[in-house]
Amino acid sequence: MKLNYLALAVPFFLFFIALEYYWSKRKGRQLFQYAETVANLNVGIAERLLDVFTTGLFFYFFDWIHRNYALFSIKAGPLTWIALFLLTDLVWYWYHRLAHEVNLFWSAHVVHHQSEDFNYTVSARITVFQAVVRSLFWAVLPLVGFPAEMISVFLLVHGLYPFFIHTQTIGRLGWLEYVLVTPSHHRVHHASNPAYLDRNYGDVLIIWDKIFGTFAAEGEEPVYGLTKPLGSHSFLWQHFHFGLELLLALRQTPGLRGKIKLLFGPPDAVDPRFRRLLERRLSNVRPGPAPTAALRQYITAQTAFSLVLLFCTLLFVHYFSAVELFLLSFFILLSLVNSGAMLDQRRWVFYLEFARLMTVLVAVGVFYRNNWLISLLALAAGLLAYYFQPMERAYLDFLYAGKRSNR
Questions:
Q1: DSSP state letter for 289
Q2: Are 366 and 324 in contact (CB under 8 A)?
Q3: In this model, does residue 190 exceed pLDDT 70?
Q4: Fewer CB within 10 Å, N- or C-terminus of the chain?
Q5: CB within 8 Å of 158: residues ≥ 6 apart
Q6: Can you give the pLDDT at residue 226?
Q7: How far apart are the first and last CA of the chain?
Q8: What angle (nearest 5°) sits at the alpha carbon of residue 69, between those of residues 64 and 73?
Q9: How far apart are CA 141 and CA 150, in angstroms?
């Protein structure tokens, strides 16, 4: 069988997340909030899924640069692997630093810093937009002369390390604190305390922060999340709120020069009033009733199913046609948006649920091509459309138990 063994990253990461959760419970520490955990996993599921479509493109992008523009011809060997490690880590430092200092890049990176928790689930908060920006920075590697094969292998290994520094369960690590980025260093980076802002950008080595003057040691208790908390767990709002804020700010900025200066300026150059304006128009999340047991159970079941479906899609990706892969991906993405809407207790969530049902019917027809089955599926779709309103009322009563929820 031709399996994609990169799918094993899903149970690998879930194992350590479960281990961290078990340890925190044993120690009586509240390191996981339910809504934050689900929102973090949702972002991670989307990124892992979209990797199916982008990873190959990144490889060919690196290979194209290497074949056409490489300054040197570098071959794999002990010294060149070490050189690749150091250069990759240095490029990461500058990518990461500019992702915090430049609005254009912050719009992709901000999602990683929205969680008010700090645990292994936060490491999953990587978007495909961030992966694209990151790859543009890494394009310097094939330009220098490192072949795409070396870069791809190394980035897979290099990507493991950051997962393990997103935790509060590991304290100081002695002399390693002087060389590596440790959980202590990364807690500082994710904190919104004024003393910790814009510090500790390194990925594996902390030496770059010490060389370029952005290092800070952990002292006061970190407070995690954005300086202005998002106040929503909507999958779409988390991904696009700052991009929309930036667009509004660009519209209000006169002249091309002013717009370019804002685009490449720091995030605090964007007037915070734009966030409030967009929240009133698009988000408008108000304090609602406590989630019902049915709501939490349904979200939990849906998240678990999305993870299983993601694993199966990644593992057997070579056996799906383009149409089948699109339908599976579309269903998973709809589920993530749906889950975020339920966390915010939106009443329009049933429209997403109905779209998921329609997607399932289409997918069954595509996977099992049979005229009689297609006729039955069309009949089922018609019945679902006919009984839309009574199903919506029953669905919302089930989730929210008739309580007021956000519109």
A1: P
A2: yes
A3: yes
A4: N
A5: 85, 88, 89, 203, 204
A6: 93
A7: 48
A8: 95
A9: 10
**Residue pointed to by tokens 């990507």:** 159
And the tokens for 34? 């339910």
Separation CA 72–CA 143 (nearest Å): 8
Q: What is the average per-residue pLDDT within 201-216?
A: 96
In the prediction, which pLDDT does 403 show? 62
pLDDT per position as a tens digit, 78-112: 999 999 999 999 999 999 999 999 999 999 999 99
From residue 256, how far is each of 244, 252, 261, 365 by CA, in Å? Answer: 19, 11, 9, 51
Q: Please name which of 65, 59, 63 lies closest in space to residue 156, comparing C-alpha atoms.
A: 59
Dihedral sign, CA of 382, 383, 388, 392? Answer: negative
Q: Which amino acid makes up residue 281?
A: R
Number of C-beta neighbours around residue 96 at 10 A: 23
C-beta neighbour count of 380 within 10 angstroms: 15
Spatial distance between the Cα atoms of 97 and 101, rounded to a whole number of angstroms: 6
pLDDT recorded at residue 402: 61
CA 92 to chain centre: 18
Q: At what angle do helices 371-386 and 388-400 cross, to 10 degrees?
A: 70
* Average pLDDT of the segment spanning 294-304: 94
Q: What is the three-class DSSP state of 323?
A: helix
Q: Residues 6 or more apart from 227 whose CB is under 8 A from it?
A: 192, 197
Cβ neighbours of residue 268 under 8 Å, at least 6 residues apart?
none
pLDDT: which is higher, 157 or 224: 224
Q: Are 171 and 198 in contact (CB under 8 A)?
A: no
User: What is the rounded average pLDDT of the residues 182-202?
Assistant: 96
